[in-house]
Write a structure and sequence with these properties.
- The structure is a single chain.
- It contains 5 helices and 11 strands.
- By secondary structure, the chain is an alpha+beta fold.
- It has a single domain, classed as Sandwich (Jelly Rolls).
- The protein is globular and about 40 Å long.
Length: 187
């Protein structure tokens, strides 16, 4: 692993029950939806996300394949889930956490995450980012971090820490069931 370190699997949370309890996502990021204009606005000069959109445009990316959904603590799932994982990881605090879902046939293409609060995170030291695979292993569930770290059909509970919390990455669902991951940025 070049861009992350693989940690011991984490299955102290019943991932299957958590997935079953999820209702409608709080945000759906997809061209043509109500959440997409905010992403389009990031293409303005001076916005760091412009490079992401320029890359997609220059590659003639199939915008119809882009779609990911997010759930947030307090509204989409219990805040206790975040606390439990943060305690397991020995974190002093959490900047943010969320669950991402990729439906079959969709992807979050090559990008780094835009976040207006990076300056606040850095005030507490170097942010640490973790991802845990919630779904059972499925052929076609793919996560790519940096240039060399590929996670394909990862076992449920696979947990890894990114070396840099804003690393370039991509998620792909070429499988037949939704792909769920738990994300946590803390200190």
């Amino acid at each position: 692993m070049k861009y992350c370190k693989l940690l011991e699997p984490y299955n102290d949370i019943d991932w299957n029950s958590l997935i079953e309890s999820l209702g409608e996502p709080e945000q759906i990021h997809q061209p043509g939806t109500t959440n997409w204009p905010a992403w389009e606005a990031m293409q303005d000069d001076g916005n760091e996300m412009k490079v992401v959109f320029t890359n997609w445009r220059d590659a003639n990316f199939n915008m119809g394949a882009i779609k990911w959904s997010n759930y947030y603590p307090g509204s989409g799932f219990s805040e206790e889930i975040t606390s439990k994982l943060a305690t397991h990881l020995g974190l002093k605090g959490v900047h943010r956490s969320w669950i991402s879902r990729l439906d079959p046939g969709t992807m979050a293409p090559w990008h780094f995450d835009g976040d207006d609060n990076v300056g606040k995170y850095l005030e507490k030291g170097t942010p640490r980012r973790f991802v845990c695979t919630m779904s059972k292993p499925v052929n076609g569930h793919i996560f790519i971090l940096g240039e060399d770290d590929y996670f394909c059909a990862s076992p449920q509970g696979t947990l890894f820490e990114w070396n840099y919390f804003r690393e370039w990455h991509s998620g792909i669902n070429a499988g037949l069931t939704p792909k769920y991951q738990f994300h946590l940025i803390g200190y």
